């Protein structure tokens, strides 16, 4: 018969994009505003992820630099809940463990450090006075910013080296100053730099073991032993440390790895990150609602155009596709703008903190995915409405 | 585009067509209408007469309640929505009273978009659009946007869009309804030239002058055809029209009346 088959022509991808973009081109202000919602959401999420991974990257680099092979040994508590003490010979025992490269000790001295004898005893500024072995600086890989570390001569003399924070709290900016410790004057011979793995040293005033015993009534019991071994034997060393340090009461010894605290900090940041990420997700959701709203209005306003396109031969599916493409383009615009903004925010913040700016690739991939999902969800209902519109009703709209 | 159909000589074939809308409104009460290729037909009647419903049925934008509608040989009743869309894309061109041009889009692209659903590639669409605009005397206005064109020019762009794909049937719904008489004359001149070149045209109008001007008039009233010169009468050239001062002198002048 004469009924040759009537098959609607397929629209190529470029034509679908063109029709989708056509609706956006004529309303630029609205496009910018509704894409802005998506952009803010995406930017928030990218920036949150970027800043937290930049900070983590910074911590990990710091860990790399500081090494994770440092262990500290401290007295725990006795069975009766009293403060335990490490034996005087503990440091020597630790040094005898095979893989141990260096070991040093500090011992808390029961006294205070003050600028002068006129300052009341109670005002300690939170600064601990500690005796330190001469190789402490080597073990901690710390460095002196002013003056010098204790040597064989000064460790037996009334000389003191201040940690960075201790010096700051005492208001000491140069060496040679006299400070009041115990019942006599000590001379400041050095100031230390920051010690990320041993923050307690930053808040300490350090004197040599012989000097502490001679002038300050120190009993010679170490309170912290710092030990570095080869990286691969850290766990083995850790296992034997309590028994080595205190063979009689190994349970009264606590061993810790200061780098674990830094690593924990890298992990702990994520709780806060999740909260901010949730905020970003809410912003994104609101942005999606904005896009859906824009699309619904767009369909209402463009009934005539829909009618015209149907009269030109567009199928329902092609009308649906057009509005879906428009919604996807709209949210993709927002997504791209948001990714750029988020990347810039991360870079700006990280550089201002001196961190390496890092945005994980999966964050960008996630942003693209979220944008596509939001664009589809936001466009689906308006597109169905557009497609369901009867052509005669659409054309009759004035 | 048009395929030879020896056993089906009619472009439009309506038999005993009725159309009811909800609420007991009967818009058409048994209409028979046959249009042969190459005719220029006016479907005329006052508002409420059912001529718009007739346009929707001929344009396959709507289906009859009872009766048969065949367009270019295809029985509308047997076609799905997708097939009807394809039919409109290939066999029908529409011109509306309100032009329906996309704002902010050049005349060329407005016309080219009319071919979007025929499956023509973009480059070919633009070439054919340029040719169609040439045909309606707007070859010099390809890059102009609708707001840079006069009303008559806008409607000629709409006509170009409708005929760019060489459809067997052009439906014009009150094509001069929004235009002053001079601009209306421009548009009618274009329709006359298209008719002379062989296009089948149905003009839906309430304006008796325009109806008079067409060689065949189908008068509709209260949902019925009350007068019709019969199929084939519309093949003659259109008559003189008061709105078209140069109608008698104009042969196939392609240039736009100024």
Automatic annotation (TrEMBL), chain A:
ABC3 transporter permease C-terminal domain span: 279-391
UniProt keywords, alphabetically: Cell membrane, Membrane, Transmembrane, Transmembrane helix
Annotated MacB-like periplasmic core domain residues: 32-216
TM helices/strands, residue ranges: 31-51, 275-300, 321-349, 361-381
Topology versus the membrane: Multi-pass membrane protein
Annotated compartments: Cell membrane
Major place of residence: membrane
Domain of life: Bacteria
Annotated InterPro entries: ABC3_permease_C, MacB_PCD, Macrolide_Exporter_MacB
Similarity annotation: Belongs to the ABC-4 integral membrane protein family.
PANTHER family: ABC TRANSPORTER PERMEASE YTRF (PTHR30572:SF4), MEMBRANE COMPONENT OF TRANSPORTER-RELATED (PTHR30572)
Protein name, UniProt field: ABC transporter permease
Organism for this UniProt entry: Microbispora siamensis
From TrEMBL, chain B:
Any one GO molecular function term: ATP binding
Keyword Hydrolase: no
Pfam family, one: ABC_tran
Keyword Zinc: no
TM spans (from-to): none
Keywords: ATP-binding, Nucleotide-binding, Transport
Domain ABC transporter: 12-247
Family matches, as SMART domains: AAA
InterPro entries for this protein: AAA+_ATPase (IPR003593), ABC_transporter-like_ATP-bd (IPR003439), ABC_transporter-like_CS (IPR017871), ABC_transpr_LolD-like (IPR015854), MacB-like_ATP-bd (IPR017911), P-loop_NTPase (IPR027417)
Disordered as annotated region, ranges: 229-258
Compositional bias segments (type: Low complexity): 229-238
Superkingdom of the source species: Bacteria
Protein name: Peptide ABC transporter ATP-binding protein
């Amino acid at each position: 018969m004469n009924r040759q088959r009537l098959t609607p022509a397929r629209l190529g991808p470029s034509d679908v994009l063109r029709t989708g973009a056509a609706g956006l081109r004529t309303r630029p202000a609205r496009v910018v505003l509704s894409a802005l919602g998506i952009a803010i959401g995406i930017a928030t999420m990218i920036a949150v992820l970027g800043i937290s991974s930049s900070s983590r990257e910074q911590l990990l680099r710091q860990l790399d630099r500081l090494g994770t092979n440092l262990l500290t040994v401290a007295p725990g508590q006795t069975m009766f809940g009293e403060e335990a003490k490490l034996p005087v010979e503990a440091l020597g025992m630790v040094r005898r463990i095979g893989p141990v490269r260096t070991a040093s000790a500090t011992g808390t001295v029961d006294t205070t450090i003050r600028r002068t004898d006129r300052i009341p005893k109670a005002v300690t500024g939170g600064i601990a006075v500690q005796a330190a072995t001469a190789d402490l600086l080597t073990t901690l890989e710390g460095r002196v910013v002013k003056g010098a570390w204790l040597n064989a001569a000064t460790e037996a003399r009334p000389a003191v080296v201040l940690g960075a924070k201790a010096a700051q709290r005492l208001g000491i900016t140069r060496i040679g100053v006299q400070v009041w410790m115990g019942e006599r004057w000590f001379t400041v011979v050095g100031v230390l730099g920051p010690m990320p793995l041993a923050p307690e040293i930053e808040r300490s005033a350090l004197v040599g073991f012989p000097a502490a015993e001679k002038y300050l009534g120190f009993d010679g019991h170490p309170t912290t032993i710092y030990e570095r071994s080869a990286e691969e034997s850290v766990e083995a060393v850790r296992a034997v440390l309590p028994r080595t340090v205190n063979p009689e009461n190994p349970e009264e010894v606590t061993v810790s790895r200061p780098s674990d605290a830094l690593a924990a900090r890298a992990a702990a940041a994520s709780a806060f990150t999740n909260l901010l990420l949730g905020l970003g997700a809410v912003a994104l959701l609101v942005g999606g609602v904005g896009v859906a709203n824009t699309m619904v209005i767009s369909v209402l306003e463009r009934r005539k155009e829909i009618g015209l396109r149907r009269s030109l031969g567009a199928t329902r599916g092609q009308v649906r596709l057009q509005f879906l493409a428009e919604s996807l383009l709209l949210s993709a615009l927002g997504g791209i703008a948001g990714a750029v903004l988020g990347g810039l925010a991360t870079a700006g913040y990280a550089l201002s903190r001196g961190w390496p700016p890092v945005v994980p690739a999966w964050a960008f991939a996630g942003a693209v995915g979220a944008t596509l999902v939001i664009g589809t969800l936001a466009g689906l209902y308006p597109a169905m409405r557009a497609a369901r519109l009867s052509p005669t009703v659409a054309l009759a709209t004035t | 585009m048009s395929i030879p159909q020896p056993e089906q000589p009619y472009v439009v074939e309506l038999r005993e067509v009725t159309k009811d809308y909800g609420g007991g409104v009967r818009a058409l009460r048994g209409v028979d209408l046959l249009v042969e290729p190459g005719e220029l037909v006016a479907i005329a009647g006052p508002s409420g007469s059912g001529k718009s419903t007739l346009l929707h049925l001929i344009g396959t934008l709507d289906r009859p309640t009872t009766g048969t509608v065949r367009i270019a040989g295809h029985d509308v009743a047997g076609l799905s929505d997708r097939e009807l869309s394809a039919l409109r894309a290939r066999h029908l061109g529409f011109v509306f009273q309100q032009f329906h041009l996309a704002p902010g889009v050049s005349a060329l692209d407005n016309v080219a978009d009319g071919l979007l659903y025929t499956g023509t590639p973009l480059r070919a669409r633009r070439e054919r659009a340029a040719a169609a605009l040439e045909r309606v005397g707007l070859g010099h206005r390809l890059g102009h946007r609708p707001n840079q064109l006069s009303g008559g020019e806008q409607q000629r762009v709409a006509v170009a869009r409708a005929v760019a794909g060489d459809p067997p049937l052009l439906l014009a719904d009150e094509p001069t309804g929004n235009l002053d008489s001079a601009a209306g004359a421009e548009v009618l001149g274009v329709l006359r030239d298209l008719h002379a070149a062989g296009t089948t045209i149905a003009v839906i109008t309430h304006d008796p002058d325009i109806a008079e001007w067409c060689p065949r008039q189908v008068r509709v009233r209260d949902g019925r055809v009350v007068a019709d010169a019969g199929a084939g009468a519309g093949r003659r050239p259109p008559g003189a029209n008061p709105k078209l001062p140069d109608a008698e002198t104009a042969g196939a002048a392609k240039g736009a009346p100024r």
